[in-house]
Amino acid sequence: PRVISLKEALQYYIDFRSEVITRRSRFELKEAKARAHILEGLQIALDHIDRVIATIRKSETAEIARQNLMAGFGLSQIQAQAILDMQLRRLANLERRRIVDEYAEVVKKVAYLEDLLANPRRILFLIKEEVEELKTKYGDPRRTQISEEEVVEFREEDLIPHQRVAVTLSDRGFIKRVPSRAYTPQHRGGKGIIGMVTREEDAVRLMAVADTHDNLLTYLG
């Protein structure tokens, strides 16, 4: 993990969304082209519906029917199979207008997706549109209120945490400050307080407990 700026975070998001949209568009384009190919075959079948049905009925097997459709009407294997997958009654009742309208919509979608994939700027506009759509659908008023206030003067001692400390003064004039918890009374048989470590031939003369934000006044006579 590493700390990044807001600009970097936004760029990572844009790159991610661009990749997602590109992958999604390629998949949808492949599906749309496949559907358009089948619809083209169905239109050919509608143009020769009686002959197509007769060809299917006189064929002994599905494989023979597929080969006859491909040879007799210039259909691809995929188109011929799509026709064979339909029941004859359903094939005979196909509505030309529905097929034509769907084909027009699919062709329009193919053109849109091809243009989108060929133009990165269009992808950026699409990202913006999708974000605005999410904002409209899920956005709610900001809960944290932002207000302008006077700038408080910052002091160096604001960085110092409050802590109870013990300050000691030795006979030789050394001053020492340590956390107060470092000083604990010794058990029976000991002398002084644990934590009062001094130099050789030196002893603690004075100890005071204070806060790290307290002021300590010393006087040297």
UniProtKB/TrEMBL annotation:
Protein name as catalogued: DNA topoisomerase (ATP-hydrolyzing)
Sample GO molecular function, one term: DNA topoisomerase type II (double strand cut, ATP-hydrolyzing) activity
Protein's UniProt keywords contain Cell wall biogenesis/degradation: no
Keyword annotations of the record: DNA-binding, Isomerase, Topoisomerase
E.C. number: 5.6.2.2
Catalytic reactions on record: ATP-dependent breakage, passage and rejoining of double-stranded DNA
PANTHER family: DNA GYRASE SUBUNIT A, CHLOROPLASTIC_MITOCHONDRIAL, DNA GYRASE/TOPOISOMERASE SUBUNIT A
GO cellular component, one term: DNA topoisomerase type II (double strand cut, ATP-hydrolyzing) complex
Topo IIA-type catalytic domain sequence ranges: 1-159
InterPro entries to which the protein is assigned, alphabetical: GyrA/parC_rep (IPR006691), Gyrase/topoIV_suA_C (IPR035516), Topo_IIA-like_dom_sf (IPR013760), Topo_IIA_A_a_sf (IPR013757), Topo_IIA_dom_A (IPR002205), Type_II_DNA_Topoisomerases (IPR050220)
GO biological process: DNA topological change
